[in-house]
Please model this.
Amino acid sequence: MSETDLSHQIEAYHEWKCGLGNNIQLYQVWLEKNRLSTDDVSRRLTRGLELLNDDQLTIAMVGEYSRGKTELINALIFTEFGQRMLPSQAGRTTMCPTEIYHDQNRQHNYLRLLPIETRAQGKSISELKNVATSWKEFEVDSSNPDSMSQTLKQVAKTKSVKLSDAQLLGFDGKMLEPDLDQPGFVIIPVWRHALMSLDSPLLKKGLRILDTPGLNALGSEPELTISMVPKAQAIIFLLSADAGVTASDLAIWKRFIQTKGADHRAGRFAVLNKIDVLWDDLQGDTLIAASIEKVRKSTAQHLDLNIEDVIPLSAKQGLIARVKKDDLLLQKSALPKLEKLISKRILKQKEQLILNDLINDVKHMLLSSQSILNERLSVFYKEYDALEEGAMSTQVLQGIADKTQQEHETYYKKLITLKSSRRLMQSQGDILIQLMGEDRFKAILKQTKRALNESWSTLGMTHTMNQFFVRINKELDNICTEAKLADKMVAAIYKRFKSDIKANHLKPKVFSVDAQRAELILLRKKLLQFCRQPKMFMTEQSILITHFFNTFVAEVWIIQESIVSEAEQWPDAALLPLMQYAQEQKMSLEGQVSNLRKMARDTRDTKIKQTELKKIIDETHTQLDEAEKIQHQIESPVPSQLDEIQDIAIR
Model:
């Protein structure tokens, strides 16, 4: 693949993550070497490494048919093959939603396709992803571009079916293209969803792309709009530069993208594609640029975006330029501007999430470990000074050892108390789990399904669906009430623990379901939008119930599972700083007692004892230097910060 801004930045981001993972592993080894490793800390660091390994950057390509979404994907990740790999000719090409990524587990190329008929099974796409027999799989031979291109054309396949059959599969008949050769028949996609794993450099580094069809497919596959698109870190919304924002474009934007509370933390961007249509040798570059800028400003106003988030480009010319290695055409296509935006804004957001969620956590653990080692070093220096003064008799050494033993026993008792407290907190965590556990949730679902089946009208069903969310919100209220008691319990434990030691830097993790509540609020708004659609009043009851459970309830189930997971991890996470501190103190004092008693039994002269103690002091300094080096590497600037530093230096 050619060296682009995007590939360069994703490479830098990937290397930074790998370096961070290596430093966390170094810290694990360092803890073992210094007898400071505990099961709690080890589990926490292992979870952090798993998060790094699973981290992906998801960009959803959204827009009406024939806006060039697939061509843009070809230009971004497929230029190494020297031709178009995904079908991208005029008209409707990508007929089913397509996820493009690299499967780390299977490590080979494939295209998995879900038949459109699976809609009749009443199961969501996320459920069916775990049912291998529901999918048809094709091998993708990346060593043979022509063969690979033919295989990937499967995503564009269509077939003709009766209008009534299409409606039973959830399609809106008014949005379907009629089959001119067979009256009463309409054209529908052969496949419902596609999963494409490719051995591409960008994809291997964690880039994941969701390619979506047009308005009709978005509306007829609710899981796309309820779950997949909202959960993408970034949205790239494609428009035609010659038309600007059309009515159907605006419908997609308002219904599916401009949603408050969605996970598009890295941004929503509009791409005015096909600017090459406006290129005109007779007009000249100045008039062409003015024309493009006019459409750009109008688009920003229509979509309520900052003008810098609207990028005019030509995906087609960008692809041709990359394949032919034409730098002038590449710059004219403006594709590098989009790549720069992705690398600057989207990757920076991912960096920030890792900084907030992982690096700060590891830094606190490192500081605690260094604090213990510094205390250990202070004791060694006192012992060394006493030997220097000749005051360190066997009796004195034994006395210091006894005193240190008492301090060790204090921390041993603190650990026992903390373990008891954690058992108590685990009981509290069990209460939180029960409040939103599987059994309770299934009971709510059973009542909701019965009420829906007993409803006599669409309005009655709408009321029942809404009441489902009201009930779930009440369950969250109960969890929040119980969580406040849990947090008070944790605060009391910290206060009691820190009353007689210098551990004010230790902070507990608060149990919170704010993120899940925000997701529920957003999901309920989408339900209300769905219920206001005219087609809901013309859809039969069983289809509506299936649709409700496959989309809205499936998403609530995911939220429920995340709350349960949070409640399961919270007892350990809340007390981890205290457990780590007490365990490290206990183990450090254990080592000191052993050394002191050994010295007390040692009949050799003072100089020999000093020499051995000096070796221990030097080794401790070495270990502290290693810890500081690990900390420095973990705190090193992230790729986006390095680029900013370079930009300042250039200016």
